[in-house]
Design goal:
It is a single chain. Helix 5 packs parallel to helix 7 and helix 7 crosses helix 11. This protein has a single domain, classed as NAD(P)-binding Rossmann-like Domain (Rossmann fold). It is an alpha/beta fold. The longest helix is centred in the middle third of the chain and has 23 residues. An eight-stranded mixed sheet has the order 3-2-1-4-5-6-7-8, with helices on both faces. The radius of gyration is 18 Å and the shape is globular. It has eleven helices and eight strands. One of its GO terms (molecular function) is oxidoreductase activity. Keywords: Oxidoreductase. This is NAD(P)-binding protein. Pfam families: adh_short.
Length: 336
Amino acid sequence: MTTHQDYGNKTPGSQVANEFSDNIKDKIVLITGVSPKSIGQQLVMNIAKYGPERMILASRTSSKLDTVASEVKKEYPNVSVDTVILDLASQASTRKGAEDVTKLVDRIDILINNAAVVDSELRRTEEGLEMQFGVGHVGHFLFTTLLMPLFETSAKSNKAGATRIINVSSEGHRIGPVRFHDYNFEGKQVPEEEQPSNKQARLKDGHNYSVWVAYGQTKSANILFSLALNDRFGSKGIRSYACHPGAIQTDLSRSLNQKDREFLDSIVKGEWITLDQGTSTILVAALDPALSKPQKGVYMSQCQIADAAPYTHDLDIANRLWELSEKLTSGQTSHL
């Protein structure tokens, strides 16, 4: 249970940051997917206001990182800000990004895995993985596990559960589970238990890819990743949550075709929230001291612990995904 049961979808993230400002002060915070006018930038600005020891901003485009970093330095000149190039569509870049982080700091107190890709067309990472899954889950898996020694160092000096790894998920996880038999959308046969429960969301005959099936798989993977992290590292004082930030209008949907944009609008039904409101659940997950203790679940929506689809709170499935993720990253997740 969270500290503020009255917080919800319309609560500004700036209010959450102010409420839990004591848990920001002197912390080292790393955020992926940072770019101008994005939820990543809004998270950065909400946190920077309250005196973190250091902020590390990670993304694939240096010019966009520099723009956000300059804004932080302008508004909060006493905050130390570093930028790290991180292209999660390239495991070589991801490894280099993790290496660069380890050269900057010896601990990380809060990681927010915020980067994502949504695309109407089937695209693949440098390693040949379907882009949404490769960036949104596998890339973050590799980045996070490479940095695990820094979280463990943080946990030794923090209060138990104050060291947090936050994965930005979505209500879109309800579209469907991880497709272990065809996670890469190669046209392989998928058993019924890995199919979307809504038959209208399933792949049509002759089609190997659907943006929304891929999206659902990735967002389900985000939740399972948090579940597995808690199982493996919770006893060391590290806590992980997966968050639905709400429906926010950003350029994340820039790669959607008109048909997919219209589908998205029909689902949201005009219930868009602001960027500031979109950071609230993430910040509760990252900062609320009440969430230092194990909760009934790892999924959060509208600033509260929420029910998630059954296939996202099965530890056997989470462990299976962990093993697949290690295989897809060659198992080399602790060489730094």
